[in-house]
Amino acid sequence: xxxxxxxxxxxxxxxxxVAVQQASGLGLSGLTIGALAETLDMSKAGVVGPxxxxxxxxxxxxxxxxxxxxxxxxxxxxxxxxxxxxxxxxIDAWCAYLADSPFPNGCFVTAASCELDARxxxxxxxxxxxxxxxxxxxxxxxxxxxxAGDLDPHLDPDDLVSLLGGLAMAxxxxxxxxxxxxxxxxxxxxxxxxxxxxxxxxx
Length: 203
Hints:
- This is TetR/AcrR family transcriptional regulator.
- It comes from Streptomyces musisoli.
- It is a single chain.
- By secondary structure, the protein is mostly helical.
- It has one domain: Tetracycline Repressor, domain 2 (Orthogonal Bundle).
- 72% of the residues lie in helices and 0% in strands.
- It has nine helices and no strands.
């Protein structure tokens, strides 16, 4: 009996959810159809069928991880006003996400960046585009805050984006490798301090 469209969609979503978890620990390049089939108690053909190839399954897993990051970190910022309120909301959500990651290996995008930065191909391109959009979103909020008079107008937005990203990556390592329970609160404090340091001096 052929599956209905809804059943096929649920099967695809189930495969992707398991693939994301496995890729977090093994890396996207370590994601195999055989391991997924065993975990899901499915045939290899049944696992790869909804995607057409292992490569497309890897892309789907990456896309789902990015969706989860967007829901957890970007959405709270978008729910506030643009500019500085958005940045503060994003920082709080970002650090909470790092402290209580849905992935066994911490921030998926950070782990994938380390895995793929020197491996050219569709996965790296997709990740590059994702990180570029994320950095652009942060830079846009910084620029908006500058226009509103909330941040130093002479600040290069990319400088602050790099600082925030570096603090997040450091916190992810401290949490995952060092088991430092203070890492996420420290990152939140330092990120907020970085914003405060760029507030214009009173006239």
